[in-house]
Amino acid sequence: MDNDVTVTVSLTLKPDEADRFCEVMLPELQKQTRAFKGVKSARAVRHAEHPTRVLFIDVFDSKEDVGAYFDWRKSTGDLDLLATLLSEPPTIEVWPTMAGSPG
Hints:
about 100 residues; alpha+beta; about 30% strand; Antibiotic biosynthesis monooxygenase; oxidoreductase; ABM_dom
């Protein structure tokens, strides 16, 4: 059975921070995420009609890898920095892969 876990993180950025985040910060954050042990894939999408909204869609090998990833992001100060750029708290959801689901 596949133990993959998909994590979605929905952000609503402050209007004056959205472009800088997407153009400057996001590429480096994605590069770091893809290099983290246990990350199978990492994507980010920006809402076409609401450009302050960004959705991260990351797939991890396991729930333990998800925990290790967020512990690491917290230890680097990235989560605290991100909080200063948001107009509301992020929505984080964890989606374990269902048995028999095609990969």
